[in-house]
Amino acid sequence: MTGRLTTGNIFLLILLMTGISCPPSLYAVENHKDSLLNLVEKIKEPDKQCEIYVHLADLCNGNEESLPFWEKALQLAFVTNNESVVELALDYLIFNNIWYGNKAEAERFSKIADEKLPEDRGALFRAYMRSFQIWKRLDTGDINETLHESLKKLRGHQGNLTPEEEIEWEFLTALSIDYGVMVSGAYQELNEAIPYLRRAVELLSAYPLEQRYPFELLCYRKLANIYTALDNSAEAVLIIEKIIELHKREQAGQKFCFGFDRIYYNDDSFYYEEYVRLLSLPELSAEQLENYFEEFMRLHKRLQYKDQSYWQVLTRYYTSRQKLKTALSCNDSVIKCVHQNSRSADCLFPYLNRSDLYKQLGDYKNALYWLAKSDSVREQLHSEEIRQSMNEMRTRFNMDKLVLEKLKSDDQTKMIALIAVLIISLCVIAWGLHQRLMVRRLQAVKDKLLKSNEEVMKQSLRAEESEKMKTAFIDSMCHEIRTPLNAINGFTDLYFSEGVDESTRGEFQMQIQENTYRLTGLLDTMLELSKLVSSDEALPAEPTDVYAICAQQVEALKERNIKKGVECTFRGVPSLCTFYSNSFYFSKVVSHLLDNAIKFTQKGEIILSCLPNVEKRVMEISVTDTGIGISPDKQEWVFERFTKVDAFVPGTGLGLYLCRLIINKLGGTIKIDSTYTSGCRIVIELPCQSSVH
Questions:
Q1: Which residues contact 689 (CB under 8 A, 6 or more apart)?
Q2: Per mean pLDDT, which range of 363-367, 618-622, 626-630, 642-646 is the poorest?
Q3: The pairing of beta strand 566-572 with beta strand 604-613
Q4: Which DSSP helix (H) or strand (E) runs through 611?
């Protein structure tokens, strides 16, 4: 040893003196920045300067202030041929410039990547950057145009694609399916995108981890989004856990790739975001929920985030633990965050969640209030969609008009040149051809305008119909709620009046109780209807004894039947088939049909029949009465919302609509038998799922 200090030893000594080798939590961020900025002026070696600029960028924690530091690190990495830092810096520069809306800067660094990255190692990174930029363009631009341009370039090399282009092809094909589904609304086709992403991940496995990491992370995130959209929580959990594991492995190998430790890099935000996504998935097991929530809270203590996603996670967690009041408090914070961001459209799901929490607590008044608020937001969103569609049509019309004017101007200029060169006869022929072409174009524009006008009229009629239905619903509900409320108020006043004997008080008490049940049933029906209408899923089904339910409902009808001239009869035979149904909702349907029959039958008989039809392999359930009946022209109309055969008979006009909604979700059918003329007969057919041998 000669005792001389080499340049590398001097650099390490300065790092120790400035505290760079210590954890960043021991020093203020600004002090570290100042120290590093002073140090970078003293150090002359490009590789050490590059390392310091990476540290400075990491201290900025991904915000816009980090961009100049990443650009300087990129320049020095090119000088020192540090390909890992080159790719890292380009990734940050392109991603963050897109994030902060600096489109021109993002394109500039994309060109640098295309020009300066080596062919062998840089091919995969360039494919990743193109795929990432296309994904972001799809979120903000013309979906069809963007996908068409991107896939067109690759189709030109079809049959002669490089391995990197094959991966890009698989990813972009999955994107085209995903966003095509968004445009068409055919969400059942979303499954078709999964095999392409799986193949892309399989092809990426042939590359080293430090090269494939960004592209593989991109594929996994798109897979997680698709599984979440398909409500496949089990697969979504597996993919998000793979994302976390992939990031841990990549971070463990960074020192080997870069040649130094990123001691100021903090990836807590990365893990926080992934655990938020995990905790937002439905159908998590209790163990998964506890484990993910514990890790989420550990990250939260370090980051101290109090954003909307934090309160949403707490709301869902406490709801699953049945701590409903705590969940309500957290839901309040979600709504406050939404209001602070001035995004009223985001209030829909917090309002619905709040209504459901009040319903679980038994506070139906507040549940109905928040349900009404969510309906108001939904109506507002619907109106905004209509307004946006009309604006788009108007814009297209103006654009077509400008194009037409430009074409006309160009054609006139061409005609002047032709007249100067050609003889009159050729000019006449050319003019005739031109006019024919113009007529076709004008006809095409006219057809487009007519179609646009028809669409505007349809949207206007839908809006008017929606407004009328809302008005009818409010009027009907006000009347139906006011009737039992008036009865409750009136009998309550009489109950507390002086001079009323105990027997009369008992009758008043029964009237108060009966009207209270009626009002509660009405609100329950509305909440149930809202739940059924807002969900497209089938009702949960299990083996159900349909015969026993029908028998129970007839006995219940006999107990509450106060009409002496009406007889209630049950005719049924137990079936040898197994019926998968929902006993709660099926009971509600049968009960409502029987109540309807007794309401409109003053004298005669009500028959509930439950008989198997062997040929059709169904169970036929029918309710027959000798009441006023329903005319043939109204036998389908009565199954619509807010329809009543007799406007003077109490009711909301939702009963038969709710019955058909439930039976359809149970896989059956319900209709009125038009051949029966002595009253009304409603027939339900439930399919048999399996035979009992």
A1: 577, 578, 579, 580
A2: 642-646
A3: parallel
A4: strand 604-613
Alpha-carbon span 120 to 673, nearest angstrom: 75
Tokens, residue 387: 């307004």
Are 548 and 685 part of one and the same domain? yes
- Statement to judge: residues 522 and 564 lie in one domain: no
**Token pair 């041998």 in the structure block, residue:** 693
Q: Express each pLDDT in 356-394 by its tens digit.
A: 888 888 888 888 888 888 888 777 777 766 776 566 566
Alpha helices in 27-118 (DSSP H): 29-42, 46-59, 66-80, 83-99, 103-116
CATH code for the domain in which residue 636 is found: 3.30.565.10
Region label for 544, one of left (φ > 0), alpha (ψ between -120 and 50) or beta (otherwise): beta
Taking the C-alpha atoms of residue 683 and residue 616, their distance in angstroms, rounded to an integer, is 14
pLDDT, one tens digit per residue, over 107-157 is 888 888 878 877 766 788 888 888 887 887 776 655 555 556 666 665 555
- Token output for 213: 């990491």
* Residues 546, 492 share a domain: no
Token readout for 40 is 């970078």
677 falls within a domain: yes
pLDDT computed for residue 464 by the predictor? 75
Whether residue 258 lies inside any domain: the answer is: no
Contact 618, 684 (CB under 8 A): no
Give tens-digit pLDDT for 434-461: 888 888 888 888 888 888 888 888 887 7
The share of the chain scoring above pLDDT 70, in percent, equals 80
Strand order in the sheet with 669-672: 566-572, 604-613, 618-625, 680-687, 669-672
Instruction: Give yes or no: residues 420 and 516 share one domain.
Output: yes
1 and 53 co-located in one domain: yes
| Higher pLDDT pick, 1 / 258 | 258
| Dihedral angle computed from the Cα positions of residues 143, 147, 149 and 152, in that order, rounded to the nearest 10 degrees | -160
Q: 488 and 519 in contact (C-beta within 8 Å)?
A: yes
d(CA 407, CA 632): 59
Q: With beta carbons less than 8 A apart as the criterion, state whether 657 and 639 touch.
A: yes
Range of the domain at 507: 381-535
Residue 2 has pLDDT above 90, yes or no: no
Look-up: residue for tokens 């169904």? 618
In a domain, 298, yes or no: no
| pLDDT tens figures, 564-597 | 888 888 988 887 667 788 888 888 889 888 888 8
Q: Indicate whether 158 and 181 sit together in one domain.
A: yes
Q: Which one has a higher pLDDT value, 522 or 443?
A: 443
Contacts of residue 573, defined as CB under 8 A and 6 or more positions apart, other chains included, come to 547, 610, 611, 612
Domain closes at, from 227, 253, 282 = 227
Question: What is residue 203's predicted lDDT score, i.e. its pLDDT?
Answer: 92
Query: What is the Cα–Cα distance from 471 to 453, expressed in whole angstroms?
Result: 27
Q: In sequence order, what are the beta bridge partners of 611?
A: 620
631 with 599, same domain?
A: yes
**Does 56 share its domain with 36?**
yes
* pTM score, whole prediction: 0.51
- First-to-last C-alpha distance (Å) of the chain: 93
| E-strand stretches of 526-576 | 542-544, 566-572
Mean pLDDT value across residues 427-434: 84
What's the number of domains the chain is made of?
4
19 lies in some domain: yes
